[in-house]
Amino acid sequence: MKKVEPYKRYTLAVTLLFAQFAKTIDDIGEMYTKRVAIAENKAEKSLNDLKERREKQTDALISTLRDTVVAFQSEGSTEHRLKALEKMIGGNRGQLVLENCENHLAYTGNNYFSFIWKHLKSNRSELIKMLESLELKSTTQNKGLEQAISFLLENKNKKSEWIPITQLNKKGDNKDDWESIPLVDLSWVPEGWWRWISPHRRRSIYPKNINRRHFEACVFYQIRNELKSGDICIEGSEKYADYRKQLVSWEEYQENLHTFCEQAGLPTNSIAFKDQVYKQLEKTAQRVNSSFPNNKAVTIRNGEPFITKMKKKKTSPLLKAIRKRIEEKMAPINVLDLLADTEYWLNWTRFFGPISGHDAKIDNPSERYITATFCYGCNLGPTQTARSLGNMDRKHISWINERHVTEENIQKAIEWIINAYNKFNLPKYWGTGTSASADGTKWDLYEQNLLSENHIRYGGYGGIGYYHVSDTYIALFSHFIPCGVWEGVYILDILMKNQSDIQPDTLHSDTQGQNAPIFGLAYLLGIKLMPRIRNWKDLKFLRPSEHSTYQHIDELFSSSIDWKLIEDHYEDMLRVVMSIKAGRIHPSTILNKLSTYSKRNKLYQAFRELGCAIRTLFLLNYLSDEDLRSTIQAATNKSESFNGFTKWLSFGGDGVIAENNREKQKKTIKYNHLVANCLIFYNVFQLTHILHEYMQEGNQLDEDALSELSPYLTFHVNRFGKYRLDSDRCPPDLKFDIPVSPSQLETVS
To answer: Model's pTM, two decimal places?
Structure first.
């Protein structure tokens, strides 16, 4: 920095401070949302525990209800029946039954909100400090929650259970003429919270007092939700900033509209767009309906579609002999050697070098970069790597990682390998490169860091490695994301972050890779989203219009699409898509906001409605096309295989990423991705030569057999290196009576 001119030095310093400040604000916001999320999960568990404990009480209430109905319907005079009812629910017993009913109704609809305070109170002071240090602003016209935050902070030192939220003001000259003025707007309070905050059940009655504890818990809870949906932003943050400010201006939108729509194949006006989607959906529905009687694989029972299991594809009779030859001819190799071989062929370490540009050059740079890649890509760590290799110090390995390698440079090396891989002929039998599948797998982390979360599906603390894998088996891009995030939020980021020659326009995923807004945004971006959805039959099929009926598949459909909502916000949606294409905002940034329900965010509602229409279109095609179902199954299987393949290569450190810094964690995933792609490249190189030799010997080889092969081979790889037994080694003589204390030494003397 001293060598740089003053103005440039000061600019760099200010930029660094600004970036670090934004990162700190992001960290505070993330800590806040995580603490509230943890409390919510615990509250839900507390409700389930309560329901189990109250099972006997519920049975008693049902029994009382049955006896009451029986008494009411019994024969005899009205007086006789009233006496029977009086005996069962009269006096104090009736009051007790009523209280038990009220308690039961309080928790109907999975209402666990009353338990949130219990699990938040230990974090109350920290949460209040966070709210005091963050500048929260509403991104909509509704400022009620902003007002509630100010009210909460003003009353943070109060200890009473109920606090007043009205103020008496004198109305006129008459000393008895006073009016009650509300101090805080409660219109934002969710319905499930109202019964815990207000003494009045009806929302039309503005309460004079509110329950302080539940009010605070409700404010903490709602802030978390609105940060996720984008209805509230944090000034100075990047992750929680107002995403609307990152969009192209309306002037830029109008200037580039026609060019963009022409390139994207989209109409420039909302009515034409609505007609385009409507006709696609209606035409597809009619086609599926007319072909349904001939579709033997699908039946509809009680309004639910059922698909018979697909028949297993017949394998080529030549495959067994080919695999046997591969096992015989595939040369054994260790990880360092395969990294060195791919570096010799491709020179992928050329992308690594001094980050500052001023560091002195190092000796044998390729060797050192390969060692660092092996160290972090296989999760060995610099200490163990230095012990195993013996030719480099652990500090030097760590220094190379810190000063010569960045996440961006690793991605460039990965793309260089992908482009070279794409020149082989063999991968063309596995896919065209026009589609990719996205899937995540959990990586274990230490519990105490910002990115680590307890994953419900996988169990244990960690983060998610999220990979985009081409249909040719090579991995195109990798993310490292928190467990609590819906994985599909990141599925479209490949559009901006993958600069390789393989550019897919169709994306496959599992259930976590889709929801209605993702379908809507993908359609406008020109991406065909074709996921494998668990419990897909529970999703709603929407009619093109309320008058649309179908002879054979009408049972599948529920309500119709709200085309007016899509028309009204078509320009807003196009503006988002144009901003993504212009590189102003990442798809994950906008989807983070659009994947959380918000009744105030009309853009979310429009994307969701469009997404429901596109998802209905996809589901109809999924029902009618067995080849499509087979393609989706095969694509998602490749992703799952890659997850196992990349984990196999991360054999060090007991499978735990030891870094607590999020940037270093992401870098470790990139290193591992690089090692995996190097092995895939090496395997295809070897397979190509083995198959060529096999064919030249006059052996039969067909395309079906080639398509069944995979580059995820590991049987020939020695992960742990080679050890040599030295038969000439002479250890010291064995002695048992050597003194180990002063008293023993004196005895010997």
So the answer is: 0.83
